[in-house]
Design goal:
7-stranded mixed β-sheet, 9 strands, alpha/beta, about 50% helix
Length: about 280
């Protein structure tokens, strides 16, 4: 049917008010309902209802402008991005080589989650080649991984580590650095331990200095792995002399992880829920 003249104006004005500032769809629905009441041929009642809707729209817009995150229990603004949902559920995901930008973000997330709740566990998912690129070239310094490992030990919440895909080199060290009893991998994950790589260039003295640093980083990495796996340092140094790949079951036998997640029943309990982040 045709809209009442007032109803048409009501619909146009209220829809415009609703979508200023990206208002939640619930506000738009309320305005449309007000406009429909105008269109039913009851201009006086419809006009009063639409004025009430308009007032609510104005209140919500003002709440958004003041930085409020909710209005009468409804969340305002656009939906959260995926990293925010993960962080809200205390999930830290490492899916890249450990370059400085990645290290900075991971450490910031760990410190924030400790501030948020010092008792609840943190779930760290790893799918990383560590401080090397997929082609084996160097991507960053081993100190990037040491910074994350030290932060994991520094914060109070227990860190549960889960390998999904791959954990190579220093990423395997981080996988083993999780809380014992809560280190896991999916069935087809691969863990690899190896010595740090270096491509030092320059004068002979500079190369010698770099070589000493590489040897020191190798020893620190192997010491952490040996301690977390319950093995002696010489054994780990020998095993890492050449690249060594471990399946998820072999990683359990070696001591890098404690279990293989074969089914959803093996997931951390209570399992994080993404829907709770939308409240």
């Amino acid at each position: 049917g045709r809209l009442h003249p007032r109803g048409g104006a009501c619909f146009k004005d209220k829809m415009k008010a609703c979508f200023v500032g990206g208002l939640h769809v619930g506000g738009a629905r309320a305005c449309v309902q007000g406009s429909r009441s105008c269109a039913r041929g009851t201009p006086d009642v419809g006009l009063a209802a639409s004025k009430g809707r308009s007032r609510r729209c104005g209140e919500v817009i003002r709440a958004m402008q003041t930085g409020a995150s909710s209005y009468e229990g409804a969340r305002l603004g656009p939906p959260p991005d995926l990293p925010s949902l993960l962080l809200h559920n205390r999930i830290v995901y490492i899916g890249m080589p450990l370059v400085p930008a990645v290290t900075e973000l991971i450490i910031a997330e760990l410190l924030y989650l400790q501030y948020n709740d010092a008792e609840k566990p943190i779930f760290m998912y790893l799918n990383s080649t560590g401080t090397t690129n997929p082609d084996g070239s160097s991507a960053g310094f081993e100190t990037e991984a040491f910074a994350i490992a030290d932060t994991m030990n520094y914060i109070k919440p227990p860190v549960h580590t889960i390998c999904i895909g791959q954990a190579f080199g220093t990423a395997a060290m981080l996988l083993a650095s999780g809380e014992k009893g809560n280190r896991a991998a999916l069935p087809n994950s691969t863990v690899m331990i190896h010595q740090p790589r270096s491509s030092a260039k320059g004068q002979a003295e500079d190369i010698a200095i770099k070589a000493r640093e590489v040897l020191l980083n190798r020893r620190v990495t192997m010491e952490i792995i040996a301690e977390r796996c319950g093995k002696d340092l010489d054994t780990v140094m020998h095993d890492a002399a050449r690249t060594r790949y471990l399946s998820s079951k072999e990683a359990v036998e070696y001591g890098v992880i404690d279990k293989v997640l074969e089914s959803p029943k093996d997931l951390p309990s209570p399992a994080p829920t993404f829907l709770s982040a939308l409240g």
